[in-house]
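step: validate -> pass
step: tokenize input -> pass
step: predict -> running
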Amino acid sequence: MRSSKTLAVLSAGSLMLAACGSADDASADASADTVEMPADSALAPVSDAPVADPSATATDAAPAVPAATATEAGDAAADVAAKAAAAADEEPAE
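step: predict -> pass
step: emit ->
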């Protein structure tokens, strides 16, 4: 008697779980939602072509530094390095 009650309760529970699910077509493949799906649908109606920006001045090459300026900068750096080396050699005042 006890086992038939247990079997009846388990059968009722499995029928309730089966009734909660729904499937219109069991043979249809399930597809997961992804982030790309909404993005693709949002960009689909865009048909405008990109427009060139005349104020953009991006180039591949860096602007050339004049040789005189580069030489002057190198000389100034050498002077600073020499002064730093001289200051390091001095004994601290007591």
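step: describe -> The two ends are 106 Å apart (CA to CA).
step: cleanup -> pass
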